[in-house]
Amino acid sequence: MSFLKTDFATVRQLEKKTRVFFEWGVGLLAVGLVCTFILGILGGVLLLVGAVTILAGIVWTSVLGKEASKSVFCPYCTSKNDVYQSIQLFDCDICKRPIKFSADGEAMRVLDIGTDLAR
Length: 119
What we know:
- Helix 1 runs antiparallel to helix 2.
- This protein is about 50% helix and about 15% strand.
- The chain has 3 helices and 5 strands.
- The strands form 2 sheets. Strands 3-4-5 form a 3-stranded antiparallel β-sheet, with no helix packed on it. A two-stranded antiparallel sheet has the order 1-2.
- A hairpin with a 5-residue loop joins strand 4 and strand 5.
- About 15% of the residues are buried.
- The mean pLDDT is about 80.
């Protein structure tokens, strides 16, 4: 299942990405409902596509939501991130800074040589 979640490392990122499915699905349902009264068959097709889009979003979210995650606090801003177990490097959901895990599983800062040494 990890091949399905290549664009995100945390649960919050998953929620943001799958939100698009539901926005498009609801939009298509609304347009399809209006078009059903005006154009008939085209409205029915849009209703069907909207329903399939919402169903695909539900299935995708439920499949990806089954992977185990762990709560990690950002070493920069101390915000809580729910990170998937298979992830070793991710960006904080709040401050967007890179975080990696040490050998013992602790979250630690990623040293950016260009900017961190200048401080």
